[in-house]
Amino acid sequence: MSDREQWCELVRKHVHDWNTPATAKIWSPALEALPREQLRRIQDEKVAGAYTYLWNRSTFYRQKFEQAGLGPDSVRSVEDLPRVPVTLRDEWLVDQQKNPPWGTFSPLRQEDWLERGWMMFSTSGTTAAHPRSFRHTNFDREMWAWHGSRALHAMGVRRGDIAINCFSYGTSVAFWGLHYALNHMGIPVISGGGANTERRILFIETYKPTVLLCTPSYALYLGRQMQEQGKSPKDSSIRLLVCAGEPGACVPATKQRIEELWGARINDDFGCTEVAMSPFGYTCEYQVNREDGRVDTHFMEDAYVPEVLDPETFKPVPDGQRGVLVVSNLFSEAQPILRYVMGDWVSLTREACPCGRTHARAIGGLAGRYDQLIKIRGLAFLPALLEDSIRSQQEIGDEFKLEITHVNDMDEILLTTELHPGASMDDLEAQEQRLSRKLKGSLGIVVDVKLVPPGTLPRTEFKAKRLFDLRDRRQ
């Protein structure tokens, strides 16, 4: 048996409840609700297998391991993981530039790709000259589908539902991961990826889907477009939203807006193209129905090992303390990467969730990356915190733009935001001053406000960019 076959066989060994959920609330209690010491034994075995697979088949990682003084048997458990240096995105960029087009970090070889290849994916933040692209196999597709089924089951998706998938039909992982997960569950799918908004509204009216899959930004936009046509999202067939691409359920004000608009619960499905393609993080029914405003994100720990590290030293931080998220993939044929710095700013709890799952959770969800942490007048903010404060103001609409400049040795913040549809355009100056005072009370900084009519600011179907730091770093 080849090293590749040994790795895939090890992954299959730890698959339970492949075709159908074992219980009404948890797809695979044998994995999702097992005692943590048993979970650790599964992780230990898979960490050792992934390390051996990379040692034998990845030029990039063989060199990385040897430079760290490691040998072929140096990593046998989760406890040994800190011996492996973390991997940064820029290291892969350099590797792909030196070894185009795929680089040498993946253990997947050209003959594997030609024999068992499924699809190529790329990130949304690539350069034109050297797109950051990743190949995956049919084995990976099957694992994505099974992992995605487990996450969607936790959110409340069930046989009898119909889903409309509004993620872009392209090389991003969201559309495909969710599509194949729904197929695996036996859920009919209306593919809205290539349709425009008008046609998607027609699909919802005509075919009565019950589950809407899209970004949080698009959920707001789609619902408002229905309202402009005299149709009520709340009275539509949609009963559940699954959102990815940007924080949604974990941003309280955004969650409230979307749920009030649609009369349906919103869930977060979290991953990344590089290392956590199938759901790494997901919400459960208990978390999205909490009344205290906090929504934790479950991590699928039989498929991944999450670590939370100090961003400067890359040393572990205690549970409950914030740090950067580092992830090891324990299932992929093409990308079983150890210790990739995803960079999200999170804190962990390993206490069991009332839903019955025992895997670790991100407290309050995943609200942004550490490299997006921005300092304004000495205070540090994640974009999601700013979004929550802005969207909690009921008199304004869904879209906004926040621009930060530096004038006369002082940071200046300008919020350009739309009025809520139907709001009065009279005495805008007084409304702007009132909103500015409210934001200072919630954020602790002065924010200048410019109100514009509804429909002024651009909309997006994918990841929205609303924060623009225009300060000259040379000053």
TrEMBL record:
Keywords: Ligase. It holds the Pfam family AMP-binding_C_2. InterPro entries: AMP-bd_C_sf (IPR045851), AMP-dep_Lig_C (IPR028154), AMP-dep_synth/lig_dom (IPR000873), ANL_N_sf (IPR042099). One of its GO terms (molecular function) is ligase activity. Residues 120-328 form the AMP-dependent synthetase/ligase domain. Residues 378-471 form the AMP-dependent ligase C-terminal domain. This is Phenylacetate-CoA ligase. It comes from Stigmatella erecta.
